[in-house]
Each structure stands twice: as C-alpha cells, then as structure tokens.
Amino acid sequence: MDLVSPDFPFWLRASHLINFVLIGILLRSGIEILSSLPRLWWRNDCAPGTEWLRFTKRKLPKEEGVYTSLMDEKPVSPLLALPGNENIGLGRHWHGLGVMLWVLNGVIYVVLLFATGLWRRIIPTSWDVIPEAWESFKIYLGFGVPDVSHFTPYDSLQMIAYTGVIFVIAPLLIATGIAMSPTVRTRFPWYVRLWGGHQGARSIHFLGMVAMSIFIVVHVGLVFLVHPTYNLPHMVFGVTDTARFAQAFTIAIATIVVVIGFWIFLSYWTLADRARAHRFLVPVTEIGRKMGLGWVKMKPNSPGQYTEKDISSFHWTNGLPPTEDESAYWVASRDKDFADYEILVKDITTGVEKRVTLEEIKALPRQEYITTTTCMQGWSATSKFTGARLSDVMGLLGPRPEGVNYVMATSYGLAQKMYDNRPREPFYSVIDLNDADSEMTILAYERNGHPLDIHLGGPLRLRVESSHGYKMTKWIAEVAWIADYAEYGDGRGGTREDSALQAFNGRI
C-alpha cells in the first residue's frame, strides 16, 4: 500500500533535487576558481613559501614582479571544473549564478521547514541526541547499521549532521564569500577582519567546501547503504511502501547520472562559445550583484581601519611592464626615471584633451590611505598608496559635460593574453562615475612612501578600491571621459572583460 509520508512532501523532495544540482555547479565552478591560483594562505600578504596548502608543484620566486599570478594558473579538465581549461572569468560567473539560485532555494526550504513544522525532524530538541548520536557513530564505525526504528525519519547522528550543514556550514560559506568582496572589504573592513582577512575568509571558504563535499559523498552513500528499501521510496516518491524500492532505486540512479551529465554539458556548452556564455551569464548574475552589494556606498578610510603594521612584506602582481615593442615611449621615459612622463587627459565626447605631466599630477591635492588589493584570482596585499584623486585629474579639463557616463583608463602596456588568441591589445578599463568620483579612486604615484614600483604600475596607476585589481589599469597612458563603453574593445568595459570574460562590475 502506498502510504504518503508526511516527512517527505513534494516541496521537500524537489528542493533536495534542486540543491543537488546547484551544489554541483558551485563545487565545480569553485574548482575552476581555485585552479586560477592553486594556493591557500592564512597570511594576507600571500608571501612565497607561506602557503598552508597548495595544489601545484611550482615554487614561487621570492623576488617581486618576476612571476605573475596568471603564470600560476593550472588547467583543469571540464569533466571536473566548470567550465575548465583556465577560464576563471566564466568560472566566477557560474559560481555567482549558482550562489544566487542556491541561496534562493535554501531560503524557500528553510521557510517551508519552519512553516510546516518539519524542522523538528532535523533540529534536535533534546540533549539526548548527543549520546544517541554517539551510539549510532559507533555502530557505523563498526560497519554496522542502526535499527530502522532509530530513523524517525532520521537517526540522531543524521539530525546533528543535517543541522550542521543547513545552519552552520551553509551560512559559513555565504558569510566568507561576502568577506572576499572588495566593496565589503573597503566599506566594512571590520567584517573581513572577523575572518582573519581576505586570506582567512578564502581558506575558511575552502574548508567549508571540503566539509560540504564530504557530507554529500557520505549522505548519498548512506542513502544506498543504510536501509535503502526504506530510504529510497521516501526520497523518490514520498511514500512508505518498500515494495517500490526497485523502481525508486532505478529512478535515483538515473537521476544522478542525468545530473552529472548536465554538469558536464554546462562545461562544454560554455567552452563551445565563451562569448555566448558571457552574454548569458553576466546580465543574469548582475541582478545578484546589484541586489547583494549594489547599495553599498564607498567612503574614505576612517582613521585606524588599516595601520602601518598591516602593510604586506610581499606584493603579488599581474601583468608585466611594457616592453620596447609595446611602448617605446614608456621604455624611454623609464630610462630617464620618468622625468618627462606625461599622460593624455581627454573628453572623447567633445574632443577636448590636455597633456598632463607626472609633476602636474603630483601638484594636485594628495590623497593617501592604506588599503588591501585583491585579485579576482585570490591573492591579496596591503599597501599605503598616495596619489591624486581621479576626479581632480579629470577636473583639469573643466566641468564634466552632459552625456558622460564613464571614465576609461588606458595603459602603455598590452593585455597578457586574449581569450580567443588574437594579438594582444592595449590594456584598458572602464569605471562608472560613482567609482570615478570616489575619494578612494586615485591615480597613484607612490606606494609605502616611495615612488610606485614599476612592476606594480609605476610611475602611475589607477586605484579603484571598491573593485578587484583587474579594474586598476597600470602604466597609465590616458584617462578619458566617455559616453558608452560598448564602443571600445569588445564592448564589455575593459581588457579583463574582453580577454578573460570578467564582469564589468568588479565589486564582487
């Protein structure tokens, strides 16, 4: 007789299946993200040799500027990662989409769990659960199986595990993910410090991913090993009829195979036309960016947010200084200690432009602060930067005209590589006016009280503290007011958006 179990309503079974699909997307895209910088630190300066865990045999040189983070990237098969094959930008977009849907599914699940009273089957209501769970653990440890009477519908050990996953590990993953946002780090540095800084949050996030993976493997394994004739009809049909076990087993196996096939399909669909995947993923994930952190407004660092003690002893970099082939002017100026260095400041909408020397930029009001740089690949470093506000530099042209919506910064250097292997193009980035007008957006010419290091963008680089490093153009050649970034490059708003398919919004 098919007796409907009140413990396994349709919404519960549906949310479990959706969660299974989304967790796979998150874990596989997480592997892609980790493979772009396969090292984990507790220290925020990410100094060579201080990793607590690494998934590469490459040894880091101790000299700054000779080894970029892109050189550390490792390809992972699309069978394992989403999408795989060194596509960090698209991996981040899939991770963002997975997070949006996973959180939405989780909120609906928890709300219904409490609304229907089914929370009592998962959340322990008595301290007796601890000794009972210990007894179950000993039985499992001896390769035994607790009697079916212990499952109502779960035994005490399962209840503790489920409570931990739903109300500890899942929130921990969300909280540490938020802590890795540049916007949160700049606006609420105290929150990032709670997790031990950017690298602490990144490492804890990884450990949470490992814990979630172990739970999934054990959970799925026990479904098929512990009273499967009881479990599978419950999970698949929501009934207590053990006579339907064979049917439930077949459907469960088929579902797992289909879901795994779907995960792999997403990888190969993405890699088949990466530009198409970018066009699909970015607008969808931008909804989550705006809802999640779009409301956060930048403000200048208040005293005490960072101190001299926070300054890193080592600073990673991405990109190498311009060569003679890339910019003969920059190389010649470097050889003169940048005594004649100048940039072009212009308004593309009106054609007004002005050549400005480095000395003229240094004569503008100084802005100085200590801040942490984060790369979308995962490294971080804290430094004191000094420079002129971008708004003051653009103000050399006079009042901003109507029709201007963005500022574009172009480098004397070229992109490291283009995703479609076409010839490298001049590096550029575009930021909106909110970021451009921020006191935390500057053209920096000093770091830690000294002229800006060449490998970090000297003599002049853009700093946009609300964003990841890929928005911060180095070796500045030109800054310009523009109306629409769609008219430049591939129309995505920057070289890393064009060459690595990142998002225009670099706040997360």
UniProtKB/TrEMBL annotation:
It is a multi-pass membrane protein. One of its GO terms (biological process) is respiratory electron transport chain. The chain crosses the membrane at residues 12-31, 99-119, 159-184, 204-226, 246-271. Keywords: Cell membrane, Membrane, Transmembrane, Transmembrane helix. Residues 337-481 form the Oxidoreductase molybdopterin-binding domain. It is found in: Cell membrane. The lineage of its organism: Bacteria, Bacillati, Actinomycetota, Actinomycetes, Micrococcales. The keyword Nucleotide-binding does not apply. Residues 8-238 form the Cytochrome b561 bacterial/Ni-hydrogenase domain. Pfam families: Ni_hydr_CYTB, Oxidored_molyb. The keyword Cell membrane applies. InterPro entries: Cyt_b561_bac/Ni-Hgenase, Di-haem_cyt_TM, OxRdtase_Mopterin-bd_dom, OxRdtase_Mopterin-bd_sf. This is Oxidoreductase. One of its GO terms (cellular component) is plasma membrane. One of its GO terms (molecular function) is electron transfer activity.
